[in-house]
Each structure stands twice: as C-alpha cells, then as structure tokens.
TrEMBL record:
Naturally occurring in which organism (per UniProt): Strongyloides stercoralis (Threadworm)
Recorded coiled-coil stretches: none
Protein name, per record: EF-hand domain-containing protein
Keyword Repeat: yes
Pfam family, one: EF-hand_7
C-alpha cells in the first residue's frame, strides 16, 4: 500500500481497528509466524494506517498489484491470491490473515511455500489441481506480466504451459495433481518456484520509517 493507496476514506461511522496489537495477540502471532514482535508491531502500524478498519478489501488488494504490474492486467491473479489470504472466506483480509500468509510466502521453507502455492492453484479446494484450474491461474499470470517476458513457443499460451506441466507432474496420468505430485514436480520445475516470488508484492505495503 504505497502513497497512491493510502488515502482511504475514514468516515466516523466506519469501523476502526485497535491502534495496537494486544500482548496476547503479539504472542500468538510471534508463535505462528516468522516475524519478531518488533516486526509485527511495524507491520500492524503500516496495515492499520492504510486500512483503518483493520480489513483489506479486494479492490485495495488488486490496486497493490496494479502498481507493480502496470504493463499487464493483474486483476485476476490478485483475486486468486486474495482468496488464499482470506483464510476464513469472509470477503476481506484481516491483519492476522495477512501476516500469516506473508510469513509463509516471504520467509517460509520451500515445502511451506509449495503448500501455499497448491492452495492457490486448487481453486475449488477439493484437494486436487485440475488442468482447468491451472489454466485459469497461468492465464492470470500471463495477463499480469503482459509483455515483460518473451515466452518460448511451447509455452506461449496457458494451455501449452499447463500441458507441459502436467506431462511431468501427473505421474499417474489421471488428469489431476495431488498435493504430493504438485510439490514434487514443482521442485523440479524452476518456473513454478519462481512464480512463488510474485504472489505478494510486499514492498508496496512495507514502508520506511
């Protein structure tokens, strides 16, 4: 949430979040994330500054991505990521949801990041990734990066890219990927691992003192 997004209307009838985390909240978040209490306090201060209600809405989330990918359309991809951050499905991202997901995507182990990525691709949350689900995500990524990358001919459409992924990952040829197939295959596919680095452009949220 950079300078362009910090001017959020703050009417008197709008809900306001607490200005500080309680000691109990800090202890819980410190135990469940890779952040220290000091870092958590800083992140919370920035989060509440830009989201006084304590809730990050989907349009605000999409705007973050639009600043980082001005040559493409990141709207769809940001929506998919938003749904993973919104762990309880209530239509907005709380600070707890935000910092928990951020901890995994920025500081988690490769296995943790791949588990998170599986949740991103498994759109309907049935425990499998179908070709259609992966095509939707890859299409969203291609739309987001626009002309930033020149893709090889055998990967220049989402369908081609997904066929290539399934050819190596779908070891039992059933047309869908289990969590284990996805994680094992991703470790051998640099593209999937690299794609994890674009799931949250956090520099726009973290600000300097």
């Amino acid at each position: 949430m950079g300078k362009n997004n910090s001017k959020i209307k703050n009417d008197s009838n709008k809900k306001k979040a607490n200005k500080k985390l309680t000691e109990e909240e800090l202890n819980e978040l410190e135990s469940k994330t890779y952040f220290t209490k000091r870092e958590l306090k800083k992140w919370y201060k920035d989060f509440i500054r830009d989201c006084p209600s304590g809730e990050l809405q989907i349009d605000e989330f999409q705007n973050i991505y639009k600043q980082f990918f001005p040559n493409g359309d990141p709207t769809k991809f940001a929506s998919f990521v938003f749904n993973v951050f919104d762990n309880n499905g209530d239509g907005h991202i709380s600070f707890k949801e935000f910092i928990s997901a951020l901890s995994l995507t920025s500081q988690g182990s490769l296995d943790e990041k791949l588990d998170w990525a599986f949740s991103l691709y498994d759109v309907d949350k049935d425990g499998f990734i179908t070709k259609l689900e992966m095509i939707n995500i890859v299409d969203a990524i291609y739309s987001m990066i626009g002309n930033m990358l020149e893709l090889p001919k055998d990967e220049d459409t989402p369908e081609k890219r997904v066929e290539k992924i399934f050819a190596t990952m779908d070891v039992n040829y059933d047309g869908k990927l289990t969590r284990d197939e996805f994680k094992q295959g991703s470790k051998n596919d640099p593209w999937i691992v690299q794609a994890l680095t674009i799931d949250m452009p956090t520099d726009d949220i973290k600000t300097t003192e």
